Amino acid sequence: KVDLQSMDWSTLVSRRAVKDPPPAQGGWHIFPTAWPATAMSNPVVNAPLDTSCGGKNWFGWPCDEELMKRRLAYLAAKDDAARKQAIDALQERFFESAPYAYAGQYLPPTAYRKDRMKNPIGLVSPVFWNLEKIA
Fold this sequence. Notes:
The protein is an all-alpha fold. The chain folds into two domains: 1-31, no CATH class; 32-133, no CATH class. Helix content is 28%, strand content 3%. It has three helices and two strands. It has helices at residues 9-16, 65-76, 80-97, and strands at 117-118, 132-133. It has a two-stranded antiparallel ribbon with strand order 1-2. Helix 2 (65-76) runs antiparallel to helix 3. The relative contact order is 0.11.
C-alpha cells in the first residue's frame, strides 16, 4: 500500500530530515530528487554514495561500511588499472546494497549566444570556465 503525498519543496526538505519511522511520526520511505551530472560523475563527489554509518550522510542515512571501504579504495587507486578494479568492486557492492535508486537522466537544454561568449565547453551541466566575453 502506497501513501503518495504531494507537497511543496520546503515541506519535503523539512520532512526528509526526520529520522523517525514513516508516516505516523513524520518520517518517510522515499522521495524523488535530481542531481546535476557533474555531482554524480564519480564516486568521490557522489554524495548519496556516502554510506558511512553514524547518520551524518545523505538523507535515508544508508549504512554500509563495505560499500564505503570500496568507495575509499577507488579514491586511493594510483592508476587506471587500479581504478577500474576498484570501480568494478564498488559497483558490485552498490547493486547488492542499493543505497539509492537511479531512475534515469535528463539533458536540460543549454544555449550560448555566439555574439556574447566564446569557447563554451559542451557538457551536460553548464560550466563557466574557459569562456571569453565578446565585447
